[in-house]
Amino acid sequence: MNNLETTLTASRRASLALLEMSDEKINSILVSIADALEANADSILEANAKDLARLDPENPLYDRLQLTHERIASIAGDMRNVALLESPVGRVLGHRVLPNGLDLRKVSVPFGVVGVIYEARPNVTYDVTSLCLKSGNACVLKGGKDALDTNKASIGLIHRVLAENGLPEACVTLLTGSHGETEELLKARGLVDLIIPRGGRRLIEAVRNNARVPVIETGAGVCHAYFDATGDKELGAKVIHNAKTRRVSVCNALDCLVVHSSRLSDLPDLCHLLGDDRVKIYADTRAYEALAGSYPSDYLLKAVDESFGSEFLSMAMAVKAVDSLEEAIAHVNRYGSGHSETIITADDDASNRFGTMVDAACVYTNAPTSWTDGAQFGLGAEIGISTQKLHARGPMALDELNTYKWLISGNGQLRPR
To answer: What's the Cα-to-Cα distance from 242 to each of 164, 172, 225, 236, 245, rounded to whole Å?
Structure first.
């Protein structure tokens, strides 16, 4: 048995220990981790500073990696929110009694061991820990090398709290080895029950193409806003600005504005807040002509084919003009990633058709895609945004970290030959 097999075997044993832990005890542990995080914020920030020093501030990962006292307080708050939620474990999802007297119950149960592979996002360490412990799962974390010092400091803190409460450290495991270790994790059938990649498209594709363990895809967000013929200009400008600039390095940030051609004269007003923030716009021919002379020339460029379907993760976005709602839907479905899309309209029929025909996990009307977040949806936190259609879709939280089993009670019924 190699080192990773030994580690994962310990995780499997730890997952069984969690099955015997009361929800009240788990809640107490989550609150204790949150308290310890805030009490040790300076040491976590010191470790985070070491990681940041190795990364170019212009790199889109820099903002994701950076922690502040405010962000640490938010992470701790999310953990406390998870502790307040109802446990998904042991819910009776279905119940029936057959004519022969067999009593069948469909009951939610943890997966067991959940592996999460993620990039430079130190908040994920705490989100995954809280959601996995609350849902009865042990977790194995493989964070990006860019966040290595931060993740080590965080796991050290989490392990101290687990030990103080009589839980094995293997309930939460951080892998810090080579790329080969990741490949082994992806192939660890029988030791790991589920793999969740959280990061960009390249990471997700690498996990999907190499895993033998079941995978739930999350992450890549190519998000659109469609400004319809009846859209409110003032509302649209605010929605577009918030979706693009609230936090550019996250997967729910806006990547493309699609505008109805009858409203091209309003495009300068729709984009003026973006200009104030120096957002670089890659505009198609008609949109470029509508913005020329009113949008800062240094930040207005002509779009190329690659401008559409790109997840910019920076102060940049594309703009596309269309002649109909149907053309807008076709563009979104072609270039979107199935994450989050929004329509800005005063037409209920247009809203309903957009919501029905657009193929995405989250579809908004007159609200920014920046709301796609487990905590904002009232789920406490999220382990990722699922862009697939099997088992989980959209923000993945506690419910999605349980599967189910059938429990059948009888009194000697025999199936006829």
So the answer is: 43, 35, 11, 10, 5
Rounded to an integer, what distance in angstroms lies between the CA atom of residue 107 and that of residue 109?
6
DSSP string over 43-60: HHHHHHHHHHHTS-TTST
pLDDT surpasses 80 at 199: no
Q: How far apart are CA 134 and CA 136, in angstroms?
A: 6
Beta strands in 330-383 (DSSP E): 340-344, 362-365
Residue 219 has pLDDT above 70, yes or no: no
Of the CA atoms within 13 Å of residue 387, those in its CB half-sphere come to: 24
The two tokens of residue 322 are 């269309």
Strand pairing class (92-97; 103-110): antiparallel
Distance CA 321, CA 69 (A): 42
The pLDDT tens digits for 88-130 are: 999 999 999 999 999 999 999 999 999 999 988 899 999 999 9
